[in-house]
C-alpha cells in the first residue's frame, strides 16, 4: 500500500495531443493540491503519458517503468506509477501483468485520475480505459499560466481506419468539442499568456458542429480574439480539406502559412492498401489549390516507408512526389506493424534492411528540401513570436510564420512579436536581424 502522493511529475511521449493531455492532467493534479516537480525520480506520483503509434514508442514505456522503479529502489523511494495515454488504452491489462504499475488510465478517462490515485493509495486496483460518451473536458479545471504558444484540443479520435494505424482503436471515434467550449478555452489561454494557439485533433480539419461552422468558421471566430496573434492547426487529412478552409488560408491574417497534411506514400496501389481514400494525383491537385490562395505556405507531411508489399518502384513514387512538392519539413517513419490493425496481417512484410535503406533515402530528400526552404527564406522580413531564451547571452528563440526556429539577439520578453529580416539559414533554424518594431 502507498500513501497519498504529495508531489507529481507528468512525462508525455508522442504527439502534440499527448502534450496537451499531459498539461491538463498536471492542472488536474495541481487542483487536487499536489505539487508539480521536474524531477521524475523524486516525485511521489509519476504519470507516464504514453504513445502507441509505433513499436519503439511502446517499448520505451516498459523500459521507462523499469528504470524508474530501479532508481527509486536505490533511493529507498517507492513512487506511485500511473500509465496514461494510448498504450494504457491498448494494452491496459497487459501493462498490469508485465510491469509494476499502480494506475492505468486511458486518454478518454483521465479526468478520473484523482479518484484512481486515491484508490491506488488504498491498495485497490485502479484501471480505467472507458471511452464514456460524456466528454472529459467539462470535468477538467480551467487553464492557468501557459507559454506564448499553446495547444488546444478541438477534435479527437478518427474514423478513417488507415490500415496501419492504431489511433481509431486507442482514441476512439471522431468527436468534435462544442464551438462555445473551444472559444472559451481559447480566451482563457490568451488570458493566461498565449499569443499563438495550435488547434489539435487527430483529424482536426474534420472538426464540425451542428451549425456546420466547419474548422474555417471556428478559425474565423478565434481570429477576432484580442491578443491572439497566431492560429495553427494539426493534424489534417487531405479528404477533409474543404474549400472553406482553403479560402481561410487566403484571407485570415492570423492563420499561419503552414500546413501539416500527411500523404504517407506517393503510389496509388500503396495508398489504396493503406485505405487512405485519396490518390497521389488528388493530393497533388489539392496542394495546387492551396498554393493558389497562399503561395508561400510551408508544407509539412508524414511518410511511411516499407508498408507491406511496397516495391522499390512504388517507393520511388514517394520520392518523386517529395521532389515534385518540396516540403518545408516532414516526419518519416519505417512501417511498424501494430497488433489489431489490418496491415499487421498483410502478406509481404518488408524486410528491416530494405526499410532502413528507404528511410535513409527519403530522409536525405526531405532534409535537402527543408534546408532549401530555409535558404529560400533568407532575405524575407517576417514576424517572430519569441518563445524562450537562447543559450548565448542576449539570444532569444522564436518561430517564424512558417514554423521555422529563428535565433535573434535583442532585449525581448517571451511572448513578444518582433519583426526581423531573416539573414542566414541552416538546415534546422534561421538567424533573424531585428529591423523595425517590437510589438507586444
Ligand atoms: N507505422 C509507422 N508509422 C505510422 N504512423 C502511424 N501508424 C504507423 C505505423 N503503424 C505514422 C503516420 C502518421 C504519424 C502520426 O505516424 O505517418 O501520420
Ligand atoms: Fe491514423 Fe489514418 Fe486516422 Fe491519421 S487518418 S489517425 S493515420 S487512421
From TrEMBL:
Keyword set, alphabetical order: 4Fe-4S, Cytoplasm, Iron, Iron-sulfur, Metal-binding, S-adenosyl-L-methionine, Transferase, tRNA processing
Textual note on the cofactor: Binds 2 [4Fe-4S] clusters. One cluster is coordinated with 3 cysteines and an exchangeable S-adenosyl-L-methionine.
Domain MTTase N-terminal: 6-122
Domain named Radical SAM core: residues: 144-372
GO cellular component labels: cytosol
Keyword match Nucleotide-binding: no
Domain TRAM: 375-436
A Gene Ontology molecular function term of the record: tRNA-2-methylthio-N(6)-dimethylallyladenosine(37) synthase activity
InterPro entries: Elp3/MiaA/NifB-like_rSAM (IPR006638), Methylthiotransferase (IPR005839), Methylthiotransferase_CS (IPR020612), Methylthiotransferase_N (IPR013848), Methylthiotransferase_N_sf (IPR038135), MiaB_methiolase (IPR006463), rSAM (IPR007197), rSAM_horseshoe (IPR023404)
Subcellular location: Cytoplasm
Enzyme class, first EC level, given as a word: transferase
EC number: 2.8.4.3
CDD domains in alphabetical order: Radical_SAM
Keyword field contains rRNA-binding: no
Catalytic activity annotation: N(6)-dimethylallyladenosine(37) in tRNA + (sulfur carrier)-SH + AH2 + 2 S-adenosyl-L-methionine = 2-methylsulfanyl-N(6)-dimethylallyladenosine(37) in tRNA + (sulfur carrier)-H + 5'-deoxyadenosine + L-methionine + A + S-adenosyl-L-homocysteine + 2 H(+)
Cofactor(s) listed in the protein's UniProt record: [4Fe-4S] cluster
Functional description taken from the UniProt entry: Catalyzes the methylthiolation of N6-(dimethylallyl)adenosine (i(6)A), leading to the formation of 2-methylthio-N6-(dimethylallyl)adenosine (ms(2)i(6)A) at position 37 in tRNAs that read codons beginning with uridine.
Record text on subunit structure and interactions: Monomer.
Record family assignment: Belongs to the methylthiotransferase family. MiaB subfamily.
The name this protein goes by in its record: tRNA-2-methylthio-N(6)-dimethylallyladenosine synthase
Species of the source: Sphingomonas carotinifaciens
